[in-house]
Write a structure and sequence with these properties.
single chain; globular
């Protein structure tokens, strides 16, 4: 697996049934976050979001990435060099689609966010390739999530 910041603190988990998640999320967000789906590349407006702010998990509202670590990788999904906090995400091996990748998910609710690859820029050398539909964005000067 890729070396990324290790989680040393235990995060209190959120557990809901599929029916509860379906009632809360759009069909696409449910598919991506709860069924490990992927949105179409270049389909998320968050791929081009340039304002300062925080990206939160669409399922639980936990901050998972910040704009300071965002960069344009050209891959069609929002990309980041590091999580908001080392404890914000967890990872596991994903062997779907005939390849071995490192999946990243929200540490609090286990929502599938995307994957991390070892081909990013400094300072980490990592590219967290994240489905925009799995995120909400809160501008630094805004009190609402959107």
């Amino acid at each position: 697996m890729t070396k990324h910041p290790a989680s040393t603190n235990i995060v209190a988990k959120i557990a809901k049934s599929d029916a509860e998640w379906q009632a809360q999320l759009s069909p696409e967000a449910f598919h991506v976050t709860r069924e490990h789906g992927t949105e179409r590349p270049f389909s998320s407006p968050l791929d081009h979001e340039l304002q300062p702010g925080t990206y939160t998990c669409v399922c639980c509202g936990e901050p998972v990435f910040v704009s300071d670590s965002k960069f344009d990788s050209g891959c069609g999904w929002p990309s980041f060099t590091a999580p908001a906090q080392p404890t914000a995400i967890e990872s596991s091996v994903d062997t779907s689609h005939g390849m071995r990748r490192e999946e990243v998910h929200c540490a609090k609710c286990n929502a599938h966010l995307g994957h991390v690859f070892p081909d990013g820029p400094g300072p980490t050398g990592l590219r967290y390739c994240i489905n925009g539909v799995s995120l909400n964005f809160k501008r630094s000067d805004d009190d609402s999530t959107g």
